[in-house]
Design a protein that fits this description.
This protein is an alpha+beta fold and 422 residues long. It contains 10 helices and 17 strands. The strands form 5 sheets. A 5-stranded mixed beta sheet has the order 12-16-15-13-17. Strands 8-7-9-10 form a 4-stranded antiparallel beta sheet. Helix 2 packs antiparallel against helix 6. The termini are far apart. 30% of the residues are buried.
Length: 422
């Protein structure tokens, strides 16, 4: 590293742009370099904006393909770690299995630096897989040529068209596939990197490694299936009977600002908040899947399906006027607070906002979980304006938000902090 002087111009050799002036002879290489500089400049803006999904790109399974490995991806916009913007203009159905004889996919074109870390096409079988999107391009039409230069027939395309392509990568999860009930939650929190990151921060903050330890971080670091060009969209688990579940939020992230400093990333970076947002939505999606497709909900215990819970969440429960749902006592068991407290609905948003700075609940610990119902939800169910009662669970480390209502009483609903046992 050489020493530079104040006011000395320090250049970036990778950002050379063509100097235009009257009389200069321009070549295709010159104009191509200008396009490359434009893409590099756009990528720097993209890196400053952040990495993740800006909107759309939801992944689902078509009802008509319940037993087929086909997914539907909605239109949307995202930015990968290289700062490259990727957009899908229309919804598309993607077949996840291709013939074993298919060669490596082509069409990366101007995004040649985004070649897949693993060559070839993986023909999927039963297991856990990661669906990723990466930039690609193709050509269209033919431009007239005058025979000058060294251009071959194959290079006289009229347009370069930017697009995207999708790949399926086997996820090297350590989860036990013989325990399908816990599989979705286990894989999700491997991707969040919760266990190791949190333990290192709490037990030895000054000597802890600040490298992220989520499963996707390790895959990128070791070049296993994905690189910085790839944007994860969903985890897909299927067996020979077809797709068992599609879990977007275990790997999907909103646009996440890069850290302004690499110091203390678990305390100050936007990434941890983004991951907590995803934890909450991942839980809600999984609960909805159990609620809509399962039976015997009143007998399900949290530990049967989850090792971790987000720091806050909503659970549909049974009760007077609410025939369908889980049994809060059975679900949370001995981890639940002694009574369910009431809170004002106006406090719900602030509760979730505070939870974004908290760690998930480890159900293997003895940590108590505070339960609430909103006064508005109780009244709506009692008056027949709603048919679903909801309980809010929250980490014991969140600020208490119960509201005393002396004109209102209901069996097994507490109103005071003394009802909570830590």
């Amino acid at each position: 590293m050489s020493t530079r002087q104040l006011s000395e111009v320090i250049t970036n050799p990778s950002m050379r742009s063509i100097n235009f002036f009257n009389g200069r002879l321009l070549t295709a290489e010159d104009l191509g370099q200008e396009q490359a500089i434009r893409r590099a400049a756009d990528a720097r803006i993209g890196q400053a904006v952040g990495y993740g999904v800006a909107n759309g790109l939801e992944v689902s399974q078509p009802v008509s393909a319940a037993t087929q490995p086909v997914v539907t991806i909605q239109p949307g916009l995202a930015i990968n770690l290289k700062g490259q913007a990727m957009s899908l203009s229309d919804a598309v159905d993607i077949s996840l299995v291709r013939p074993a004889s298919a060669g490596a996919s082509a069409g990366l074109g101007v995004f040649g630096d985004c070649q897949p870390p693993q060559p070839g096409i993986y023909v999927a079988d039963a297991g856990v897989y990661l669906l990723v999107m990466c930039p690609a391009s193709t050509t269209e039409g033919r431009a007239p040529v005058n025979g000058l230069g060294t251009c071959t027939v194959a290079c006289n395309a009229r347009y370069n068209i930017e697009g995207v392509q999708f790949r399926l990568v086997q996820l090297p999860t350590g989860a036990d596939l013989t325990q399908p009930a816990l599989l979705r939650n286990t894989v999700a929190y491997e991707c969040f990197g919760t266990i190791v990151d949190t333990a290192a921060l709490v037990s030895d903050p000054f000597n802890a490694s600040w490298d992220r330890t989520g499963l996707l971080d390790l895959m990128r670091r070791k070049k296993i299936g994905i690189g910085d060009c790839d944007l994860p969209l969903a985890v897909i688990y299927w067996t020979l009977e077809g797709i068992q579940y599609i879990d977007m939020w275990s790997v999907r992230r909103r646009l996440t600002k890069p850290p302004g400093s690499h110091s203390w990333p678990l305390l100050f970076s936007d990434r941890r908040v983004s991951e907590t947002d995803a934890m909450i939505q991942q839980f809600q999606d999984e609960i909805e899947a159990i609620f809509t497709t399962g039976s015997g909900l009143e007998n399900i215990q949290a530990a049967d399906r989850f090792t971790f819970l987000p720091p806050v969440g909503l659970l549909p429960i049974r009760g007077p006027g609410s025939a369908q749902g889980f049994d809060a006592g059975a679900f949370f068991g001995s981890s639940a607070s002694r009574a369910i407290a009431t809170m004002d609905g106006a406090s719900l948003r602030s509760l979730f906002a505070e939870a974004r700075d908290h760690e998930p609940i480890d159900l293997r610990s003895a940590e108590k979980i505070q339960l609430y119902v909103t006064f508005e939800n109780l009244i709506a169910v009692q008056n027949g304006q709603s048919s679903q009662l909801a309980v809010i669970f929250a980490s014991r480390y969140l600020t208490r938000r119960e509201t005393a209502r002396y004109s209102f009483a209901s069996f097994e609903l507490g109103h005071f902090a003394s009802n909570f046992v830590r």
